[in-house]
Amino acid sequence: MLEHTGRTFQTRTSYLRETMEDRELDWRSKPAAYKFYTYVPVISLPKPLPMPEGEPDPGLWDSIAKRRSVRSYAAAPLTLLELSRLLWAGTGVTASFGQDFYRAAPSAGALYPIETYVVVNRVESLEPGLYHYRVAGVDILERPIVEGSHSLEQLRVGDLGPAIAAAALDQPMCRKAAAVFVWSAVFARSVWKYRDRAYRYFYLDAGHIAAQVSLAAVSLGLGSCPVAAYFDEEANALLELDGESESVVYMTSVGRPSRPFGGTGRVDLHHTSRPKE
Ligand SMILES: Cc1cc2nc3c(=O)[nH]c(=O)nc-3n(C[C@H](O)[C@H](O)[C@H](O)COP(=O)(O)O)c2cc1C
User: Fold this and answer.
1) Does the beta carbon of 176 lie inside 6 Å of ligand 1?
2) Among residues 78, 80, 263, 268, which one has the fewest Cβ atoms lying within 10 Å of its Cβ?
3) Which domains does the chain have, with CATH numbers?
């Protein structure tokens, strides 16, 4: 049954030369490109760049060579600057041309359907809890502006480590990690243009973002592990998402590795009996 569903998805979202239609976009119904939480505390993040003089930076090639999924973490917290850099590497704004803001990771049609939430377990200067990344500020006409960009909206305060670990198929690393990035897709943003095909793009977009965060983590000397094994309803409930218009699509745990890692050194294995990706 499951295999059949996956196969049907692949077929139904295929582009075929014979049936490909030329369709005008309805610009009046274009969904809002940004999500904001109002009436919540907003925390400005330190600028991710430039890297301070003398800070060790292994460079791209070393980071690629060293990246491994790291599942056991030391108790030491992340700094706010480290979290800022990880957020920026994933969904931060890196260029703007007039009203068009472009981000670190590529996105189909530059529609940016992926929202970033962070479950903070241990980050300096942040209370543990749930945060949402405010990519850009908006003016009264809901146009993106630099002011207010790259900040965190504090949605809930409290120890959510056990809840995110439980939602992630009881994977203890999510409780032990300093932070867990949780990415959701706002479906309407891409369905507006790509219809059913958009459902491929949500996961591709999220994959690009996660890959950039994982390499950024290595370059900061941090460990991370992608997590796609989670109970959808529980993950959505934690973020108060309805699962219909917006749903969790991917996660990544991040923290200081409990032992040195890199490249060929075998560091971490799955330690639950559940099937993992
Ligand atoms: C889409 C995807 C989902 C994954 N989900 C999990 C997960 O839920 N739990 C986990 O421990 N590892 C997860 N992983 C990590 C893989 O197990 C890991 O990438 C793989 O074993 C290769 O090891 P490496 O990342 O160290 O190269 C996931 C990786 C991907 C790409």
Assistant:
1) no
2) 263
3) 43-255 (3.40.109.10)
